[in-house]
Amino acid sequence: MRPTVHDLAQSAGVSLATVDRVLNNRPGVKASTRSRVEEAIARIGFVRDVAAANLAKGRIYPLTFVVPSGDNSFMVSLRHQIEEAKTRSIAERTEIVMVEVPAFDAEALVAALRALRNDPPAGVAVVAVDTEEVRRELLALKASGVAIVTLVSDLEGFDRDHFAGVDNLAAGRTAGSLMARFLAGKTGRIGVIAGSMLVRDHQDRLIGFRERLAEINPSLVILPAEECHDDPHRVDAAARRLLAEAEGLVGIYNLGAGNRGLIAALSLMPSGPRPVAIAHELTDHTRAALEGGVIDVILNQDAGHEVRAAIRVMKAKSDGTPVIAAQERIRIDIFLKDNLP
Amino acid sequence: MRPTVHDLAQSAGVSLATVDRVLNNRPGVKASTRSRVEEAIARIGFVRDVAAANLAKGRIYPLTFVVPSGDNSFMVSLRHQIEEAKTRSIAERTEIVMVEVPAFDAEALVAALRALRNDPPAGVAVVAVDTEEVRRELLALKASGVAIVTLVSDLEGFDRDHFAGVDNLAAGRTAGSLMARFLAGKTGRIGVIAGSMLVRDHQDRLIGFRERLAEINPSLVILPAEECHDDPHRVDAAARRLLAEAEGLVGIYNLGAGNRGLIAALSLMPSGPRPVAIAHELTDHTRAALEGGVIDVILNQDAGHEVRAAIRVMKAKSDGTPVIAAQERIRIDIFLKDNLP
DNA sequence: CAGATTTTGAGGTACGTAAATCATTTTCTT
DNA sequence: AAGAAAATGATTTACGTACCTCAAAATCTG
Question: Mind telling me which Pfam families this protein's record contains (chains A, B) (predicted)?
Answer without folding.
Answer: LacI, Peripla_BP_4
